[in-house]
Amino acid sequence: MRSGALRPEMQFATLAQQGETAQLGMWVFIATETLFFGALLFAYFVYRNLYPEEFAQAAKETVLWCGILNTGLLLTSSLTMVLAIEAAAAGRRQALTNWLLATAALGIAFILIKSYEWYLDYQDGVVPAVHFFMKLDQAPAGELFWVFYFIATPLHALHLSIGVGLLFFMLTRARRGELTSGYFAPLEVVGLYWSFVDTVWIFLFPAIYLVGRS
Amino acid sequence: MAALAADVGTDYLTSENTVRSWLLTRDHKRIGLLFFASITFFFFIGGIAATLIRLHLATPSGLLQPSIYNRVFTMHGIVMVWFFLIPSIPTTLGNFVLPLMIGAHDLAFPRINLASWYVFNLSGLVLLYALIMGGADAGWTFYPPFSTLYSDGYILVAALAVFVNGFSTIMTALNFVVTTHRLRAPGMTWMRLPLFVWAIYSVSLLMLLATPVLAMVLLLVAAERFLQVGLFDPTHGGDPILFQHIFWFYSHPAVYIMIVPAMGVVSELVTCFARRPIFGYTGMAYALMAIAILSFFVWAHHMFVAGISIYSAVVFSLMTFFVAVPSAIKVFNWTATLHKGSISFDAPFLYALGFVLLFTIGGVTGLMVATLGLDIDLHDTYFVIAHFHYIMVGGTVSAFFGGLHYWWPKITGRLYPELWARFAALLTFVGFNLTFFPQFILGYLGMPRRYYTYAPEWQPWNLLSSAGASILAVAYLLPLGYLAWSMLRGERAGPNPWRATGLEWQTSSPPPTYNFARTPAVTTAPYAYNPENGSYVAQDGTVHA
Ligand SMILES: [Cu+2]
For domain A32-209, which CATH number applies: 3.90.1170.50, 1.20.120.80, 3.40.50.300, 3.40.50.970? Predict the structure, then answer.
């Protein structure tokens, strides 16, 4: 499709309206997602309040360097995501491709490090139901911490993987010339999603890694 | 009359008629009909379960084994709540009418709309699988520790079905919210929206904010059951009350998810058949939003006897009384709308009238069980069962049928047989009351819910209830017959058989694929009816004597 031939879908009057609508859709979806993760964090903090000692002891066994490194990677990826959008707005197609690739690479690096961290957790025997040794000073609630950990971090990683998939989808759309300086709303929508997944991590990181070390 | 109607000879039904064109359609009207087929199917599944329950309870000794009875009422609850009541009005009538009402050519995201239908059916298949394998037995509320530790039913599969179903709910709700914000025709300001749109908009907000919480709590239950780890199990340090808090944080709003769309339908019906503008439009619109917001802060009234502190019980009881205020405003305003109206008792209006009466009874008894002292006595008795069936069956299902009859000429282009429809509406009212009023008395006498047997002296009331249920079944089956007949033989309806003001009536029946020949311009508030001489001003500004 030639870039000039882009037309709004039937229900929209203009491309601008279509773009704004898509963005609003993502904001509404983010509201939903906030309640989804919110319910999990709520339950987590209820138990953390009930068993502060046990949770602190259990949290000390998380692999801090993995968490810190991953936080850095994700924050950087939000920057490259914004740069990709800026490149699209300026019509610099090569820069757009490069920044999208950089963002995807950072996301994949996060998932790889996370997977390695899960492997370390397994070796430590802190994977509930699979490979778990209850420490005496943490019984019985210490296991609760790890149950939450192994629900929250895979859920976040799943969201991030979907985000990486969306980035590659944007790459093909960019290659087909569908993201122009006149219309790049799909990219902004993906950017919103990416920032949201990033923000979830900003909440998970201190809740998981820093609790026991304060 | 129909200035906005397309003069092209093709409508959305006949424009293309391959199976493929239906299964891949992006037309909100066709998707509404697809949803209609799906939820009708599940209404039957849930109805069969209800029939079994009433047959079983006709005698104290019963018909089914206790363990089977548990599975039957669980399936009845799950199917009726998530596979019929919650999607009923929004996905069918909402899908069909909302874009038409605001003068849009489709929903904002037609592909997501279609995907929602597929996800809904997928979740339905998962549920049917659980049913065929032997069903679940933990009640529709999935309370741990029974659901996680002791039940031997297919809890995980049933929970998965509800989890997947939530995606469909969210996709549809997201579409409605965004469409209402962005696709209103020129001149269609917020304060000119028909109240049905306000209702669908508020209920969509509820769905978007409540459903993910249910998804998370089901995920936690599934993790506890599947991995045998403790999340809500006290021996592992978990707290079963926490489950109840999170579950009812979703499920109380879910009650309003089921009733708010019905309120929207009734506002359309009452105004049209009383030929009067709605009394207190602004109050009606804000009452819907107030219900949506307040309903998030009353959840613990389901837990008064579960061991929460007396202080929070008092607060939640008080909040429950507050949420009754906007509901009462709505009832008063519907009644006031009727005053000095020029009323015609067509079938949709009969259903609406039934709604107002039954909803009022359901609402007032709701306040009774929200009262701390009374609830200790009535909690988990048939009084509660009767209360929420007055809201959900007497209220929502009546409004659903009312709306279906009202928009039927628009959907099919044909009129339904009026006499049959009035008969069905009356039969619904009689059958409903006969089924559920005795349950108030049974609950007052102390008959607990979910028990497979009861004391022999309660049999007369139970028999009466079962007899009423058979009448109700006939009343629900009747429309299926005559509506199907009318699709082939019914009189041609014309664009606006009810002489109604909404934009949906200003285009042809059935509407063309993109609804309007041109984008309408809105110049007036809704419901500009004149009871004196029957004239009205449609929302596109055309005056009709
Ligand atoms: Cu409630």
Answer: 1.20.120.80
Least confident range from B303-312, B447-456, B460-469: namely B303-312
Which residues are within 5 Å of ligand 1 (an ion), measured at CB?
B 252
Indicate the domain borders of chain A: 32-209
Write a three-state SS string for B490-532. Answer: CCECCCCCCCCCCHHHCCCCCCCCCCCCCCCCCCCCCCEECCC
- The ipTM is 0.93
pLDDT digits 0-9 by tens, B77-106: 999 999 999 999 999 999 999 999 999 999
> Does residue B149 surpass a pLDDT of 90?
no
Q: Which two tokens stand for residue B394?
A: 């007497």
Q: A39 CA to chain B: closest CA distance, Å?
A: 6
Q: Which of B348, B291, B362, B358 is nearest to B479 (CA)?
A: B348
Query: Which chain B residues are closer than 8 Å to A12 by Cβ?
Result: 183
Contact B182 A20 (CB under 8 A): yes
Could you say which residues from 450 to 509 on chain B have a Cβ atom under 8 Å away from some Cβ of chain A?
none
Touching check for A46 and chain B: CB below 8 Å?
A: yes
Q: Give the CATH class of B23-544.
A: mainly alpha
What is the pTM (predicted TM-score) of this model? 0.95
CB proximity A5 to B under 8 Å: no
Task: State the pLDDT confidence band at B2, using cuts at 50, 70 and 90.
Answer: very low
Average pLDDT over residues B460-473: 97
Whether the Cβ atoms of residue A81 and residue A104 lie closer than 8 Å to each other? no
Contact residues, chain B, for A28 at CB < 8 Å: 174, 177-178, 208
At B4 the pLDDT is: 67
Angstrom distance (rounded) from CA B142 to CA B244: 9
Domain ranges in chain B are: 23-544
Are the beta carbons of B203 and B261 closer than 8 angstroms? Answer: yes
